[in-house]
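Field reference: sequence -> structure
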Amino acid sequence: MPEPNHWSSGQHPAPASGRPRVDDERKEGIAMSAHIHPALQPHQAHEPSRRHPRILFSVPITVRHLCRGGVRATHGISLDLGEGGLGAIVQGDVHVGDTVAIDLRLNEQLVNTVAIVRHCSSVSSGFEFVGLTREERLQITSVIGQS
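Structure field:
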């Protein structure tokens, strides 16, 4: 004789272990909500309100900034790029609020931009472009559009 179908009656068979099962909380026809721990959610701590979307974009960059003793050039690699700025891993010290010059290649052309450091951590930094020329903006948007 087949076992009774407890699911269609709204009853759940008792688990052998005596512990409640995850689906003991489920009600037929009602969706369960789930809480995702903040550490498992997409990282947005430094992206509260982007004006421009970013794409993954990885090219070598040079960052030049003023420090004691003059201008210092450091090297890095970009992580993402948008019309408003870029994220990168950079060697050396940059600090939030610093104004820097960033050299990067877009479509085989060297582009020199000016940016403000908006985010720094031991892993990466975020830069907001300022004073882009029309040509620089077009170069960036053409790269973004190709992705």
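Note: The chain has a mean pLDDT of 78.
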